[in-house]
Amino acid sequence: MHELSIARSVVDEVAAAAFARGFAWVSGVRLEVGSLCGVIDGALEFAFELAAAGTPLEGACLEIVRTPVRLWCPTCLKVVQPAEDAMFVCPDCGNSCGELVSGRELVICAFVGQVSAAAAAE
Ligand SMILES: [Zn+2]
């Protein structure tokens, strides 16, 4: 399952970052997911819950922010957003644009949590 491997790497990455910052636990994670990632929100939320179990992220809520597909149009010389995600065509001039500016990324934007007492005392 595609979403489970994504969820596992998100949990690993956030857990490591949280540990490095002295967090005792993480209560929320915001994730930016490009429209072309082929990720289903509900499946990712479910997979995240599974992957987070037994880690400092257990019970954390996952906020998924969708980033739209954006293309560079070499004719209009600007970044455009296609009418349909899978159509790499400029909505202004109708020419095809091959260069993807965004839409395939998967980025951990932020996470919130509780700093452990030991770290807070330092
Ligand atoms: Zn164009």
What small molecules does the structure contain?
zinc ion
Please report the distance between the alpha carbons of the first and last residues: 42 Å
Low-confidence stretches: none
Topology, number of strands = 6
Shape: elongated
H-E order: HEHEEEEEH
CATH fold group: hypothetical protein PF0899 fold
What's the overall average pLDDT, rounded?
93
Number of discrete helical segments: 3
Q: Which architecture would the CATH scheme give at its second level?
A: 2-Layer Sandwich
- Could you give a short account of the major beta sheet? 3 strands, mixed
Q: Mind telling me the CATH class?
A: Alpha Beta
What is the rounded Rg? 18 Å
Strand order within the widest beta sheet: 2-1-6
Please tell me the total number of domains: 1
Give the helix/strand class: alpha+beta
Percent of residues in beta strands? 25-35%
Q: Estimate percent helicity.
A: 25-40%
Q: Multimeric state of these chains?
A: single chain
